[in-house]
Structure prediction request, 252 residues.
Amino acid sequence: MAAQAAVIGSNKRFADAEWRMRVDLAACYRLAHIYGMSKVVWNHITARLPGSGLILINRFGLRYDEITASNLLTIDLDGHVLDGSADELNVTGYVIHSAVHRARSDVVCVMHTHARGGRGVAALKCGLLPLSQEAMLFYEQLAYHDYEGLSDDEDERERLARSLGRMDQMILRNHGLLTAGRTVGEAFWRMFQLEMACTHQMDVLASGQEYLIPAPEVCRKARRQYLDDGPGRWEWPALLRQLDRSCPDYAT
Prediction:
């Protein structure tokens, strides 16, 4: 498939394993742009380089639709930029993402968004309700973190990690959403589903009508059914094929 060819491609500047991770992460940025989860030059998605304590992140000032595999920054978990200048790093991105990557060696990719649905639910005291199948994917598996202002305080990293715990998704109160994955595709698909669930909830609440919440055992069953195939397993290759047709320069 075209998507597989793009991911397996190489670049002489980078080892093969790093290049594959760069291509996947660049794809995640492009998809976030396409599906309305970018914010001009703000927000961030990171991926851990295989076998290292280094992570990839976007260069501050680039739009998501400008991100390519080769223009991602490499930083360490102390925020040192290894292949660019320090002013190309969004400090809030370093604080939020290094918190998760430090605490969770099982996590490869961390995605953070400020999209409309997620920000709406982040402002609700009730949090996410199991009103849709997408929301049930996260039933009893969703963390919350209270707002502390712009995340440029390194001391917040410990509290962010503690709030997330072993969960793979978190609502940052009055702020936005965060997902974590063992692959880039998993982190993206969790975010896609979480944002969809939040948008649906805001639509339901805006109707002003009474709503239905299924019994807990039904919500748990739906969650298990969603997780049987693994988030992103089938969707990610399909999304890469979409990018290979519409904007193949992501893999350059």
